[in-house]
Amino acid sequence: MDKITEALSKLLPEDQLQEVSAAVSEMLEKKKKELEAEMNSNLEEAYATLTAEKEETERVAKEGYRQAYDIISELRNRNEIMKSEYDTAIEEGYEEAYQAILAERGKNENIEVELHEEYEKRFNESKDYMVEKLDLFLRNKGKEIYEMARRDVMNDPTMAEHKVTLDKIVESVSNYISDEDRIMATSSRLEEAHKQVEELSGRVKILESKNIRLSRENTNLNEAMKEAAALITESKSHANDDEKKARIDEAKKVTGRGDVVTEDTKVVGEYSNDNKGNTTNDDDDVVVEGFDPDTLDQLAVLAGTKKSD
Question: Is the pLDDT reported for residue 162 higher than 60?
Fold first, then answer.
């Protein structure tokens, strides 16, 4: 305002300066009030707009917070439900696995018991079967074995010599001893006879056990003979095949000449062997090599060419 008054003082006379200054001051004051009013109006409008935007922002924020809270609450509830379901599934899995382990353990224990019972049953059955067969064998062959042992003992030259010697001794001393001494000598002979009978009984038992062993060996030898027969049959079939093949090969090498015109053609065979010297066939294997030495010894014992141990 002072600058405007100073500028007007240079342009206007002094008597008009106050009026112009007052008019300018009034105009400026009016303009100032208008600007202030406009500014206040703009401020109020801006404030109202800002307040409305703020309220809208707050409303949107509250709505977003509410939605976020709802989402978080829902996710939290889902997590709680999933955790509960997972814990329940884990517990059920543990329980199921535990029950399966218990069932498997019980099954294994039952299997062990069942196997033991089955083993005991079969063992007792086999034992009863062996006892029954041995008893049947002794009932059928006991007397025969006893007679064989008795004949062997009676036919023993040593026993015959002892008997002759004893008879001569008794005959020689019969004139020198009394009846009581003779009875004592007879009783001593009876004791010796009893001892011989006991010894013969022991030998009979030994022969019975040896006969059982020989029967078992005979069974094994029969099985070995069956296997040998199968091997021999197989080797014969291979030999026949090889022989047939050799005849075919030799027939291919034969040349002939004859009267082709006649009805009965006579062919004179001319054999030409390309292989010089003696050759061996790899298929000519010895069948006996399939047996072990023990089997051959047993076969020799049965054949009578070798004595048993």
Answer: yes
